[in-house]
Amino acid sequence: MGRPVPHRLQSLVDELSQLLASVATLEDRDFNLVAFSSQTGDLDSIRQQSILQRSSSGQVRSWFEQFGIATANGPVRTPANPVDGIVGRLCLPARWRGVNYGYFWFLDERGGIDDDLLPTAMSIASRAGAALAQQWRTRQDVELSLQALLGPDLDLVEQAAGELEDLNLIRRNTPVVALMCSLDPGRGRPEAINVWRLPSQILVTTGVEGALSAVIPLRSVDDLSPALEAASRIRELVGERQDSTNPWTVAIGLGAARPDLRQVRGSWLEAKLAATAGGSDLRLSPVARWSELGVYRLLACGPRAALKEAVLDPAVVRLLEQPSDDLVTTAAVYLDHAGNVQKTAAELRVHRQTLYYRLKRVEEVTGLDLTLGRDRLVLHLGLTLASSLGAGRSSDRGP
Q1: In sequence order, what are the residues at sequence separation of 6 or more whose Cβ sits closer than 8 angstroms to the Cβ of residue 179?
Q2: CA–CA separation, 345 vs 82, rounded Å?
Q3: Shared domain check, 94 and 194
Q4: What residue spans of the chain are helical by DSSP H?
């Protein structure tokens, strides 16, 4: 379920389609589909993609923007591109007070739209520009309130919670959880994601720390299903905007639920750390949940080099450098089973004497005493995080 199209915008699309006798679509200035008329006749692949995916790709956006539509104050005719299957179009900018907030598109392969009708059409388009400008300002207001809600100033948090409640977006006593989605720095831009295709009750901002942050209302603090559904939807939206030949690395973190909107900053900080951990170890995908990370929370703490130096004791490194996997796997399984010989032997499918021999070899290689809790901790922590820290072979027993 996406944000509903205002009736007035749909009416303006239908009015223009009837006036110019051509099927029409309306996109916002980020090329997200807002509304469209009944589509008849042959549609090119770009129109089909826009309607089916509710947005256009970055390549399509670049093609049309080269003809100056972003700053045009009147109709623009764009040529066909047979190589990419693009037919000629008429673009009417939805302009308000000198700014283009969207575009009306009409397939016009043969140039059959009457130029005498264009002044009237531009007048209608300007009404859509005013409506889109109002939507844009509302969206900016919501983003500013959300950014204040996630900030450290308690007075601003209280004020922001009141503003969001006044807008009938979310009540202050509603259980909530925060989500953060981060993309490869310098490659994926969070603002490129069509967040308007998310359910309307989800509050989203792309203006905090270069990532997409969301606040999601819940039915109860024990039911995170709306947040997990939102995370899945965000991944789909990212997939629609990225280049399949060079995909973005997507890390989504989910904090723990809070019983009240004014407490959501704590959940957001957890989501931020969880996203960092998820970006460090893809085994935590598709969603790194703070409440389930356990020791993997360390992946979000401090510079990677410092964490690697602290966690990978020389004893652990010596074990990882052994030519065979047997000792690493044996040690990891043994420690995961809290030193239970019977369970370890059963999982490894080896005789107890073989297990005792391997454990003795582990002690010889590492210099650790597996009967001592502190030595077990050093080895267990190192083996658990070795793969996440890029330390070569590990037991690969996932999170």
Answers
A1: 213, 214, 215, 216, 227, 230, 231, 234, 252, 253, 254, 255, 271
A2: 66
A3: no
A4: 7-20, 45-53, 58-65, 118-149, 154-166, 225-241, 264-280, 290-293, 304-311, 314-320, 326-336, 341-348, 352-366, 373-385
Q: Is 170 exposed, middle or buried, given 0-12, 13-18 or 19+ CB atoms closer than 10 A?
A: buried
Domain that holds residue 176: 150-300
From the centroid of its chain, how far is CA 17?
A: 35
Tell me the one-letter amino acid at 230: A
Q: For the whole model, what pTM was predicted?
A: 0.71
| 227-239 average pLDDT score | 89
- Answer yes or no: is 391 within a domain: no
User: What single letter denotes the amino acid at residue 89?
Assistant: R
Contacts of 76 (CB under 8 A, 6+ apart): 67, 68, 69, 90, 91, 93
3-state class (DSSP) for residue 299:
helix
Give 122's pLDDT tier (boundaries 50, 70, 90).
very high
